Amino acid sequence: MKIRWIPTYNAPVVLTFALLAFAVHFASVQTGGTLASTYFAALPGFDYKSFWSWFRLVSHVLGHKDMPHLVSNFSVILLIGPVLEEKHGGKLLIVMIVITALVTGVLNTLFFNTGLMGASGVVFMMILLGSFTNHKPGEIPLTFVAVVLLYLVGEVTAAFKEDGVSQFAHILGGLCGTVFGFWRGAVGGSKKTLAKKVRNAK
Q: Could you read off the pLDDT of 69-86 as tens digits, one per residue?
């Protein structure tokens, strides 16, 4: 028996996101890191008249300071992302990623005088959102509680340490994932209820 392995682009949004981040990193390496720090980092001192200031509020999730930073983020995204893309759909996942990037970028620019770079916020959004996989309206998944205790509590504690890591982005990303999770559970529940009523009416 002959087995044929055919590669498939099984999660277009997640894979494209990863490819863009790696492309940005390799291109930035060629410029000594200036490309990522200039165009793919949310920087303090926002200029409302500058296109790039607005662009960086979202593009910062594609910039990473080094390869370990990039690999650590996308190891998680490539693991969890395809499941979320299958469950919620590619278009909605794009919206979630962009909203998370915008929330972390805007709040970092407003309240901190340091730049923000990397997809860590998106990672935590996906981790928390993933804990709602079997969520039903009116319930709080124990997986969600466990993830909060393991990840977000640790991030809040670490936020008081000067280690060069933006726990702020991690926490905000986790909060975005929590909101998305409860929202999708409520929407899914309302759709099931409506479908059940339609079946009963027939």
A: 999 999 999 999 999 999
- Please report, as a single letter, which amino acid is at residue 6: I
Tokens of 96: 């979630």
Helices (H), 42-166: 51-59, 67-88, 90-111, 120-130, 142-147, 153-158
DSSP, residue by residue, 50-78: -HHHHHHHHHGGG--SSHHHHHHHHHHHH
| 24 close to 17: Cβ distance less than 8 angstroms | no
Domains of the chain and CATH, by start: 12-201 (1.20.1540.10)
pTM summary value: 0.84
Task: Say if residues 181 and 129 touch (Cβ distance below 8 Å).
Answer: yes
